[in-house]
Amino acid sequence: MEFTELLPPLHRLSHADKLRVMQFLLTEITQEDAVHLNPNTEYEIWSPHDAVSAGNALLQALAAVA
Fold it and tell me: How far apart are CA 18 and CA 26, in angstroms?
């Protein structure tokens, strides 16, 4: 089945069913990606939280092109 064929039935789903579809897809993707992860290994995840210097650099770059 093609992606475009899935869209009309997905649009007709209730809000709760759309959330269930999202949960299903995220679980599927996680399981597929888990093949590439090593068990018992910690992976660092970067977050922009408290990245003030990055925000300032972005503001300066935007000001330079404005």
Answer: 12
Q: In whole angstroms, give the CA distance from residue 23 to residue 31.
A: 12
What does the angle CA 2 – CA 5 – CA 7 come to, to the nearest 5 degrees?
Answer: 120
User: pTM, whole model, 2 decimals?
Assistant: 0.50
C-alpha to C-alpha distances, 17 to 3, 30, 47, nearest whole angstrom: 18, 20, 31
The pLDDT-based confidence of 8 (bands split at 50, 70, 90) is very high
C-alpha dist (Å) from residue 28 to 3, 8, 38, 46: 16, 21, 18, 24
Alpha-carbon gap, residue 6 to 8, rounded angstroms: 6
